[in-house]
Amino acid sequence: MNRQRLIIVGAGAHGAEVYGYVQDLVGRGWVGEFLGYLDDDPAPQCRQTGVIGHLGAFLDRPQEFFQDLCYLTAMGNNGTRRHVVATLQGVYGDQMTPWTLVHPTSYLGLEVEIGPGTCLAPNAIVTCRTRIGKHCILNVKASVSHDCTIGDFVNLNPGVTVCGNVTIGDDAYIGAGATIIDKVSIGAGAIVGAGAVVIHDVSPHVTVVGVPARIVKQNLVTV
Prior knowledge:
The chain has 223 residues and is α/β, with parallel strands linked by helices. Helix content is 13%, strand content 30%.
């Protein structure tokens, strides 16, 4: 098996966090190679060295360069993350493979499926019989219980608690410390405010806040 070569896409604050997670994996025996960052921002925030260039920086590389090359996005905004993934696929096709990061302090139980491009941060928990989609973020101490289905490009912020038998649609954003009680459905593109407690189903593309959570806004739907 060849050695994985990793690019972090996004050189902002979350990119710095992801870099730290990669170093934790190295400390636990991961033998891949971190090549650097891609970022379209001409003045990225990340203080680590190794910003290679913009998203199209590899267009002039030979086919051999892409062998075992993988990437992980590092931006919290779901729409931005989706756009970046689509851009990379449009530019490079399947030459770059989305990489799944599971931090060594996170916990995965039985019958858990984690989609490509998803990041499980320190102390994230997924108990059992649960599917996590593609290009998701389960941030620090986010917890997902049994028999849940989490869609693609979902962001569970630090300290989120998702109880059992919950469904969360694509592109949903769950704010820090929010709680989703069991058997609730969160619609695609919904936003749950920080610290909210969701006890009823949430429609797609709305923002809910409070305890218990109530709708305060209809979100703009982008194509």
